[in-house]
């Protein structure tokens, strides 16, 4: 398997910074790609061992390009997730003063995070969109714009300096990234895990989605994320991207997946992997009756009943 | 094992008639007992191979003595059930005319079934209770009463004749009987089966009973009977005697029992056995997603996901 | 309305003792009746203002005669309930010694409460059933039996003395009695109330009973009792006698009753009345979102939405 | 109120075509705006009577800009919806041949609909993004690009001709648009209506979302759309944009909204309005027990119970 990770480029973006927090990234070649589909295609084609792409952020919600790529096409699996806090620096050429800035650039996704700061500090400046935050920095280096919003880490690479750092309109702004590979055995459970799936409903009746969620609830499995995505079968037809607490090797998760598989038109397993930023000791105990131990005991008891020994 | 069946006596009652409808009864010694507890104790003590007792009728509902005996004490299991339509004959000594009847007797349980008929046909007669319908017939034979309500089959035994037959205030009056033995492997599924259990709730919260019934509903298992019985822990404390469609070897039933075992304080398995009066071809198909085949496929799919092969 | 209360007689039974704990009983004529149906018929016929009858006990569960009378016939309503602890005294003629007792009597319902005590203290004695505990005491007075199990209060009336008191095999043995009248406006809520209803399901499908219980759960109304009783439409056909926490004037209870009325074949309202033995300050607060205040606010909000003012 | 409708411009886009299908648009001044927020701000500021914007399409799902604008800020209400099938024409200057096309342009949203067609028919052409499809047509008119994908209706306005029409990779590609105004009384129900709301959960527990959906299910209200949007409180925190069948003046919808209002942290009502493309006679009858008539009867019955008259 090629020892390379594809990631959503270019270099010098938040994605690269997030990727470098993974220990295994140190031993791989990191290859920037022009888009999420390009990064995931590299995995599907066998050109890359894995791809590292954003999947959710606190301002935009689910990254629909990533979700749609995981929902359709050759099956892929998520093996790791990384959470990164997003704050911007205002990068300028050395010696540029705030009052001299007439034009500013960044990727459009940066706008919700810097809009209020701009109103307060750069009210009359002209905004131009860049293909990426790193590309914006490059354009400032080339003199095309006066300033760029980007991660502070991008300054050095482009010979710029941060005039202001820690810019973030919304508190707790974070982006979640995932490391995606071809299907293989999931990593062993850590005690603080997450399982991702996609569900397609068999039909549409009152309470249909509730019945589907009932498969989780009756086994005490908590939902962490539910995002609807179009199925392509016409407006109003959606499948559901779901993140649930726990690992597929947990009995309650496995039985929930079985239940969903039985009642859904289709279920796609997207992996079980460690939750970023949560330690096993901080995960609440399973609800009464839903621990592995209780599952095993109940299963043994039914087996004894089937044999008439109890 | 002793080749005898104990049953709720005396001879000549509906219970004996029902018991004789079982082919296997022809090869056993049939031993009448004075009470349901006595019949079941004979099984528990090893004096009888099985006991045959009434468990439900259309007028009184669940026979509480039988239910309470099954709920508590050494575990027993149900292996067969029999449904018997209950209609009464008015038995008299030969040559007695309707107009000569001044006193009539029967077991109190007969009263709801003959009350209206008596009002219309014997308005001024005096009713006296007997220990059993057969005993009432005996007392008529002895000349103590003028007439007895009993099964028509009891006439010959006591030298009486039926003056009127087919007496039944309520249409569809039936009694259900069960053949009860010590725990052993349940009979193989027939396609029209029933599973009996007793449930004790772990605690009492709003929706507690609904959650418990949710274990059935989420797996498409239909409830046929739900009867509450006191736990003995004080007024308002009940356990639930439940009959559900299907056999413990059906995957949906087995998983339901596992779920109940996990969330209940206690579950007692009372057996899986053929439904009386229902043929396999008349049982509705399992709900979508709940057949054995779908369970197996779903289980296989989860196993493949756990291995990363799909 | 006649100022009399009918009750299940004869005099000197636990029922009379329970009835006399009601302050209003002091100003009524108390009329013993031979049976529960007779007592309730007296109310239906206008001969009595109300009837006082047992409805549940901790050994037998629901008193089926009483439940069946409330379920069918002219509608009646429950206005009060009384809880009475049941312990027996062994009543004998003065100077009788324990060793001299050869025969003992009582109503059959007493047996589960005294069986173990008898095994330990009167192992060889002969038991004979009496029509009521009071009647048993009378038969001892007449010399027909040596001893009777009855309430200690019955001793004086029949010239007997208690040889032993406080006999009760089961701890917490209690009987619940209700005061039943013709339909009228329920008593005002006290903060610790109970609502009794009877439900007939519209049809029978998997999850049917769960849906019905969902009407309670979704509005945070706790179930206190669920008893199935035959509908008379043949074996396996049941209606459900249900006690729920709260008063029909509570918004959550009223909306629950509306929901049940809509989805059930039939609903019979049996009254809202104070819970015996529970003070308002000991009743847990309504679940979040289910208080009267929250219902009123939500209703006002919907009305504003319907007007486009919000 | 100003007699103008703001809409997502520029002129000559699908949005304008969809808007002109509304009869009331004929009597208003139609004002193109540069963005969805700009169009909705015009309504909030009182500069426009209403705004017409896309809210969902079959390829992208919910239009997040529109949803986020409706979720936050001054409350707005939806009064109408329009469904438009989306097929593209390839517009060129007169006399341009297919083989002469080297560059093509359109809004990026057009790409998923024309990608396959391009691969098959224009494999080597260079794609450049335009600010809107209409703008792309203008740039072709100016000679900057050779061809533009746009609605066929845009040809005449820019002096172009359709070289090919009916281009659509996905069958059933549709966009849904809504007419949004300041809160006012919703239009009267038509029998084929839809109600839009936003829900914020009070807390996050296993089954929390299922409980929320239970408010719909228990009253037989069908869900048509469920889209999660970030609340702004950090990653993983979502509110739910929901479309449900029925009108707020339907009793089952009103009671559902009340239930949600009680258990949710917050509920925002976004309007009840006629469903596009559905006639009242094609809407399935309400489930048993959920019609207005049944609600009224149940409410009357509870009122009679509260009075003791039944």
TrEMBL record, chains A, B, C, D:
Homodimer. This is Prephenate dehydratase. Pathway: Amino-acid biosynthesis; L-phenylalanine biosynthesis; phenylpyruvate from prephenate: step 1/1. Residues 197-274 form the ACT domain. GO terms for biological process: L-phenylalanine biosynthetic process. Residues 4-182 form the Prephenate dehydratase domain. It comes from Streptomyces avermitilis. SUPFAM superfamilies: ACT-like, Periplasmic binding protein-like II. The keyword Amino-acid biosynthesis applies. Keywords: Amino-acid biosynthesis, Aromatic amino acid biosynthesis, Lyase, Phenylalanine biosynthesis. Its EC number is 4.2.1.51. Pfam families: ACT, PDT.
